[in-house]
Batch of 3 targets.
Target 1
Amino acid sequence: MAKAITARALRKVYPGHPPVEALASIDLEIQDNEFFTLLGPSGCGKTTLLRLIAGFEHPTSGSLEMFGESLLDSPPYKRPINTVFQNYALFPHMTVAENIGFGLQMLGTPKAAIRSTVAEMMELVQMTQMADRQTSQISGGQQQRVALARALAPRPKILLLDEPLSALDFKLRKKMQLELKRLQTETGITFIFVTHDQEEALTMSDRIAVMSNGAVRQVGRPREIYDRPADRFVADFIGDTNFLPAKIIGRDGETAQLRLPSGKMVQAHANEASAGQVTLALRPEHAQLTSEAEGLLAGSLRDVVYFGTDTHFHVGLDDGSEFVLRQQNGPTVAHSYVTGDRVGVSFPDGAAQVLRD
Ligand SMILES: Nc1ncnc2c1ncn2[C@@H]1O[C@H](COP(=O)(O)OP(=O)(O)OP(=O)(O)O)[C@@H](O)[C@H]1O
């Protein structure tokens, strides 16, 4: 089965003094019917990649295929691809229904077909009640839904979404995240979604490509990206991470035996043939606070910070570094350590990940 999108050695340099290499050399495959997210900090090349797929920009070199056929000679309007922009770009003096039908009208679709598709799309985004309202008279979340319906109406094979939720407030954003995922599942259209918000990426995506400096650092399912970050950049960019020095002294497939600076031994996941001195990544919620004697690491408790849903413990390890643990709060959860206590930090075999660099 051909992939929805296949990019090989895709490179984009914007001319100028000096020129900007926005995409270094990207290899990427996006499956049909996938909710695929491009995640990375500002300026890493996410929008550039979307613009190449949409056809608004031409690559400097490399290949770009959709369902096994090159996209490079096809102008944007001939690609069965639609884009939802951050600012929605709705026509304020047109009604909800007119906005949704606009693309179809431009394509010369017969009136009856437009009417039935518009009705179907309004149903899909739950805007049927507001069909005759002007889009200048509806809320931000409703505008977002209309923009989505308008982009979905011509039934593109791929929908590109460039930070479509960033103008919405926190609550509405959460709601729209779920709605977008539902829309993708219901329509079966491949969604390529751009965001710099890691939580948004983790909650909605089938797979995520983490980008930095024009390169793809890791592609994987949200859980893989979170639990098994490939390198320090990914571990640092997504969630909070503790980094620990360790030495690999044995290996059984993807499981490495490591010695910690304390002399204690632990097993961790290692993707590649890393050897010798390495860095381990460990999530704060994957570690437990213990007595000094029971811990794999030892130190003093520096801070206890209450966050409502959980409590963060900052431990000053004996090697001078800081380790953060996170423990979920509950009506029966209590801890007996106070700032200044000697404590241990422990974590189960398999909880930590050996990083690539
Ligand atoms: N038209 C252009 N001309 C020159 N440089 C550009 C142009 N568009 C983007 N760039 C540069 O290319 C790099 C990648 O930009 P891009 O917009 O793809 O990043 P992004 O990850 O989408 O960032 P953001 O999250 O801020 O939108 C940046 O360094 C940017 O300044």
Note: The first helix runs from residue 46 to 54.
Target 2
Amino acid sequence: MQAVSKVYGRGQGAVAALREVTVGIPRGSFTAVMGPSGSGKSTFLHCAAGLDSPSSGSVRLGDTELTGMDETRLTELRRKRVGFVFQAFNLVSSLTVTQNITLPLRLGGVRADRAWLDEVVHRVGLAGRTGHRPAELSGGQQQRVAIARALITRPEVVFGDEPTGALDTMTARDVLTLLREVVDTMGQTVVMVTHDPVAASYADTVLYLADGRIVDEMRAPTADAVAERMTRLGAYV
Ligand SMILES: Nc1ncnc2c1ncn2[C@@H]1O[C@H](COP(=O)(O)OP(=O)(O)OP(=O)(O)O)[C@@H](O)[C@H]1O
């Protein structure tokens, strides 16, 4: 992202959600984005992922410039080159695990590569569950399906918006361990918004947003160091 700004609304009511944000996220890294409520985290994620367009500045995915792309091409880019994991798992209740995972491929008119599907299912720990429907799975298992669905297209980046926000502590740790593994063993790039210092400690780098700006960056974070930094940002006041 190069000098990315995002302003919502106009005139007196205008809100600057991002102010000249410049950052490069390396391929194969795990990045957590933190900051107080309203600091611009979701806006950052949406602009980075091509879900929303900045008011000014430029966003690139690899060598592709997203700025100025029309909605049709952006939709295609999101389907093929980006994966998403949200707090709500957003699974289709009438479809099986396998059908949910392969949905992005089918929407794109692509057949699932059997070996890759098996590998993804195995990696997220869902072998033996592939015929189940979401309602027959625990919350953690449902989020694993969502992660597998995000990985199936071999995207350049997986974006997570509070991916563990709806899970209990133990289950959240399992899911974070899985995200860490996909970075370490598959070279996947992951960018995740979180409020949780423990979740952020699984990342390689934490970006701190405050009032629409990146105000700090922490490498090799620990949960204590992240919590302490957040307190100084006024996040817990
Ligand atoms: N569609 C919108 N229209 C107007 N203002 C918006 C819109 N979306 C976000 N904002 C404003 O932009 C600022 C940043 O919002 P954003 O959702 O990116 O923050 P956040 O850090 O993700 O917050 P939270 O942690 O509470 O989810 C906030 O002041 C918010 O009120």
Note: The chain has one domain: 2-92+156-232.
Target 3
Amino acid sequence: MSIKIEGLQKSYRSFQALKNINLQIETGLFGLLGPNGAGKSTLMKILSTILPFQEGKVSIYGHDLVSEGDKVRQLLGYLPQHFNVPSQFTGREFLHYVASLKGVSNLQERKNQVEKTLEDVNLIEQANKKIKGYSGGMKRRLGVAQALIGNPKFIILDEPTAGLDPSERIRFRNVMERLSKDHSIILSTHIINDIESSCKNVAVIHRGEVLFQGFTELLADKAKNVAWELSVPFSQYDKIEKEYVIISSRKEKDQAVFRIISKEQPQGNVRPVQPTVEDGYMAVISRVMS
Ligand SMILES: Nc1ncnc2c1ncn2[C@@H]1O[C@H](COP(=O)(O)OP(=O)(O)OP(=O)(O)O)[C@@H](O)[C@H]1O
């Protein structure tokens, strides 16, 4: 087991942000899903040793997070949710700087790593431009790059794909897939598709609690027998929205067609549907499970 979290509790003053978290994370890509305010960033900050916690035990590749923080940091690459870079640097200069800080002292080795990482995040063409001229997506990709520099065994990425266009998201996934063979990578995202197509294991966290952990495809099973497609006249749109957990809706002629989660079979023009990972996620966080 690469990462073991036992009985982790974190409070900000009187507010309990993480409640008795127990997670086991192996080599590979691990997805952390949860709505806004669930506690994902709090957990990631704790794992990256920058935030203290009150209760529990965390072990990273056999090192205790608290008493062996220095050893853990040597294994770590971290992209925080809000990542600011010195804007006067060029992308290439910045990555050389990060590589030096991470102890890559051999110049040739540093060059190799920086160029490979720039390629991975598709920033070769912009590498000699000052960061202040980068777009939001380019800055995010540079953020991912700095987390990968130094070849850390344990990589924590807090919303790495936020602001990336679809082709860059696909590129990101391919790089993660390559790294997942011999790294432990935890990534948080709101984009279920990112998790579905690349993470073998996932945890769903909501209001500071882990509500699901396991194989990603098993998350879909949580919506077994509770996922429906319901067609209603357009006039009933608001009523349905209030009554059910809605996954999506579309217009078909004069009908509104809803994909919903409901324990009871709804009345009317309805049919059961094969649940997706997104259905499972919504079923878990709304606690409407089969
Ligand atoms: N420094 C802080 N002081 C007090 N409360 C905090 C602090 N940081 C976070 N919180 C609270 O802890 C809870 C979890 O926040 P966290 O940022 O970990 O959620 P998240 O899952 O990352 O959310 P998002 O998806 O919106 O980024 C929220 O209710 C948040 O308001």
Note: Residues 3-215 form a domain with the Rossmann fold fold (CATH 3.40.50.300).
